Design the sequence.
């Protein structure tokens, strides 16, 4: 069941009405939300609801065992087993085929070809997301950030809650579970914010992402050798915009839908292409994943505590595994390597450079959310430096996107070769597509609190005004968008 | 007062309530806050339900095509044949009422924008310059403005003349 469909609209209308009717009975409300989340998930493939339930049960049981285990070594073993089980499930469904193929190629090359046990495995939708939710719960209990839940309903709802189930955001257990202990509440600002986010998400996905996919990106990445350099350059810039609008659009809708049901999710994107460094980019892009990787992988590896060389090593390992999380393919690993390598180089350069007073610094809250962006009277030179930083960062990110989007390494290399071929006909650089890319990138430089300001402007309009905005907004999006509803890119991860 | 006494008073002794009611006052205030929060939630929920229903009604009226297609998908899977008949009747009624023209008009504008060439853009950007310099007036002027980007303006002003053929894939 996809968000931008009539089916989901009706589904949500029923859930919204029923969930708020049940607010006086919290346990029944949780059970109801779990049931509808399983229906939502089962719409793709009913067989995998058992996998979702098994994953939830493993993590619930691990939490209970951690609660009754006193010794540190016992707790360490328990959390290791729970993480291994979670990663085992993920590894089997997502990476078994990739590792078998890679092993087979390797054995062929060294002359030890064998018949390996290949299996046709269907990848369950959203498995990477619900696995990370499960690990987040167990590790947070182990670190005593949250108590182990006594009620299985809370853990099952945390892992399966439908807005975040198939493509995130990866909400932390320590953020979500305490919300289940409070009486669900809804106020007019949450309603207005939900409506604005849903409309914004639908526009990003259905109009911008779908047009760029249909008219530009799918074609140029399908056969890069058939296009000239300008087409390919616009193609990769178009893909940068497409994947942002596709994924952040999904996140916007998910956060809006959860908000209407009384749950607060943190933002998952914060205008990433305005970043002047890769470090800043990862504080603005897929914030829930980057902060997850930071807290559950980079920091446990040692972070930046053990000297320069180990910091670079930890960065590279984190980004390589971040790449592998997206999919079992060398293209994703190279994508991670580009980011990891560039982050390490950037850190090296910044360490060598004398640091003047910051013209712009992004202050993180330490929990993955964006803080205030401080600007301190940037001079012309500093502004130029920042603009240059934005340009370089964006182009490094785009270089990595080529590997991320390409069907295989051969296609990625063909794409890179094509970028140097500036003769030949230019087919895709039309005013419509150029405008779509430029306007979408320019929107990254609008005020960061635009959604909040829009929400504040409409929150007092009443049912008639809000209904008209939502109805007319969806109607216009439907009218402007290309025909059909393409699945979200991140469903495949 | 010593720091220790001040600290003890602040953190360990009961604080007077805002209205001087002590713990009883706090509880009363807390109950009042909870009641106000619940009333706020009830009111917001009612607003949201009415807004969602109004949005659904707007979509049903102006996007009856979407309803018909969704009902068709259901009917293909073997259920909802009655729904399909109803949605077709509704779609026809909306077409007669002229509600569908709104969606068609917007799609026409997008189709024009999609089909625009760089020559059209130059023509559009150049149009104000031509107007300022006095060129473009008089006989033959319409020919200078017949790029595909000038037609959306016509659509916007006069939807009755709309003649979009659905070539954009809708």
Sequence:
């Amino acid at each position: 069941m996809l968000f931008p469909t009539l089916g989901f609209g009706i589904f949500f209308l029923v859930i919204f009405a029923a969930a708020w009717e049940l607010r006086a009975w919290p346990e029944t409300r949780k059970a109801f939300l779990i049931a509808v989340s399983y229906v939502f998930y089962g719409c793709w493939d009913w067989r995998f609801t058992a996998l979702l339930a098994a994953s939830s049960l493993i993590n619930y049981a691990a939490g209970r065992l951690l609660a009754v285990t006193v010794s540190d070594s016992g707790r360490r073993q328990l959390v290791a087993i729970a993480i291994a089980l979670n990663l085992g499930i993920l590894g089997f469904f997502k990476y078994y085929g990739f590792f078998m193929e890679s092993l087979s190629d390797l054995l062929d090359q060294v002359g030890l070809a064998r018949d390996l046990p290949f299996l046709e495995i269907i990848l369950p939708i959203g498995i990477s997301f619900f696995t990370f939710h499960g690990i987040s719960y167990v590790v947070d209990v182990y670190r005593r950030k949250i108590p182990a839940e006594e009620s299985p309903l809370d853990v099952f709802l945390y892992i399966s809650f439908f807005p975040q189930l198939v493509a995130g955001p990866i909400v932390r257990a320590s953020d979500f579970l305490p919300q289940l202990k409070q009486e669900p509440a809804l106020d007019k600002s949450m309603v207005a914010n939900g409506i604005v986010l849903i409309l914004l998400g639908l526009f990003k996905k259905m109009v911008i992402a779908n047009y760029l996919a249909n008219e530009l990106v799918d074609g140029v990445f399908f056969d890069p050798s058939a296009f000239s350099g300008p087409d390919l350059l616009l193609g990769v810039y178009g893909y940068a915009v497409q994947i942002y609008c596709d994924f952040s659009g999904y996140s916007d809708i998910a956060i809006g839908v959860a908000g209407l049901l009384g749950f607060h999710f943190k933002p998952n994107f914060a205008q990433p292409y305005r970043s002047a460094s890769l470090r800043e980019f990862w504080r603005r892009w897929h914030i829930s994943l980057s902060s997850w990787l930071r807290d559950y992988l980079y920091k446990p590896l040692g972070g930046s505590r053990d000297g320069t060389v180990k910091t670079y090593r930890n960065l590279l390992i984190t980004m390589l595994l971040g790449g592998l999380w997206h999919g079992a393919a060398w293209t994703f690993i190279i994508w991670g390597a580009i980011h990891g390598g560039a982050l390490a180089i950037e850190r090296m350069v910044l360490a060598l450079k004398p640091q003047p007073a910051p013209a712009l610094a992004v202050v993180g809250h330490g929990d993955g959310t964006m803080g205030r962006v401080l600007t301190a009277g940037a001079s012309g030179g500093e502004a130029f430096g920042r603009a240059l930083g934005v340009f370089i960062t964006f182009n490094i990110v785009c270089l990595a996107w080529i590997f991320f989007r390409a069907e295989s390494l051969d296609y990625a290399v063909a794409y890179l070769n094509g970028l140097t071929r500036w003769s030949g006909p230019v087919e895709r650089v039309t005013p419509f597509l150029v405008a779509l890319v430029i306007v979408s990138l320019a929107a990254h430089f609008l005020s960061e609190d635009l959604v909040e300001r829009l929400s504040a402007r409409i929150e007092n309009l009443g049912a008639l005004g809000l209904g008209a905005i939502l109805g007319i907004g969806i109607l216009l999006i439907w009218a402007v968008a290309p025909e059909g509803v393409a699945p979200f890119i991140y469903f495949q991860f | 007062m010593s720091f220790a006494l001040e600290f003890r008073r602040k953190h360990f002794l009961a604080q007077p309530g805002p209205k001087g009611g002590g713990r009883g006052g706090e509880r009363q205030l807390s109950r009042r806050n909870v009641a106000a929060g619940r009333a706020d939630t009830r009111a917001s929920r009612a607003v949201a339900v009415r807004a969602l229903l109004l949005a659904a009604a707007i979509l049903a009226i102006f996007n009856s095509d979407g309803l018909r297609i969704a009902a068709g998908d259901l009917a293909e899977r073997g259920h909802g044949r009655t729904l399909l008949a109803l949605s077709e009747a509704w779609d026809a009624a909306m077409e007669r009422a002229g509600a569908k023209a709104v969606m068609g008009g917007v799609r026409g504008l997008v189709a024009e924008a999609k089909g625009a060439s760089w020559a059209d853009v130059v023509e559009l950007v150049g149009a104000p310059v031509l107007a300022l310099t006095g060129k473009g007036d008089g006989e033959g002027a319409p020919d200078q403005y017949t790029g595909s980007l000038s037609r959306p303006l016509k659509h916007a002003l006069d939807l009755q003349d709309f003649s979009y053929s659905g070539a954009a894939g809708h």
The mean pLDDT of chain B is 66.
